[in-house]
Amino acid sequence: MNILAHAYLSGRHPEIIIGNFSGDFIKGDPESPRHRLTPGEIAGVRLHRAIDTLTDEHPAVAAIRDLLHPRCHKYAGAAVDIFFDHFLAANFQTLTGEPLSDFVAFFYQTLQTHTNRLPAPVVRMAEYMIRQDWLTSYQYLDGIDRSLKGVARRTAYPSGLDTAIEDLERFYTEIGEQFANFWPDFVTTIQNIRTTLLANL
């Protein structure tokens, strides 16, 4: 899953949000003293990893990766993550009961309030994300196209992500149906994991 899904699945716990948002930048054991994470932030990193693992293993995600493989090859999973954020953003109030604008404002404010807890590269990403308002833009195809092109500029090898919007447009109905099949049970599973992590703090 991409940024919006990770943020939403963190719940309203600031430390979980910070750990989850930083998850890709925390290497190895999050409990290692070198990371200087709080117990809640460690739980957020563990939640981030659980979300990634369970997403990658889900049959709906595998089906979309197969659709995207001819263009994106090993980066098909990255495209799926971004595409799923589009369907979440575009249907946010229906899926969550909350306006997208309200959630995005809460999430951005949480990051800004706890900037001192973010690794330096994450601070830079957060500043750019908030300035460009990525999460609101995800509900629109041009916002998804910008996100795909941004990731494409950072990949080590040609990824096909710079033109992957064409696959989203071509397979829009199929991808949307797979997301609809994926999301409800996935949310329940992650909420249960998050509850367990919080109970063990």
Beta content: under 5%
Structural class: mainly alpha
**Stretches with pLDDT under 50, minimum 5 residues:** none
Helix-strand topology string? HHHHHHHHHHHH
Would you kindly provide a written description of the structure presented here, covering whatever features stand out?
The protein has twelve helices and no strands. By secondary structure, it is an all-alpha fold. Helix 2 packs across helix 3, helix 3 runs antiparallel to helix 12 and helix 4 crosses helix 5. The longest helix has 28 residues. It starts with a helix and ends with a helix.
Give the arrangement of secondary structure elements.
Layout: H1 3-9, H2 14-21, H3 39-57, H4 59-72, H5 76-90, H6 92-96, H7 100-113, H8 120-132, H9 134-137, H10 141-154, H11 165-170, H12 172-199
Helix pairs in contact: 2-3, 3-12, 4-5, 4-12, 5-10
Supply database-style keywords.
201 residues, mainly alpha, 73% helix
Short characterization:
Helices cover 73% and strands 0% of the residues. The protein is an all-alpha fold and 201 residues long.
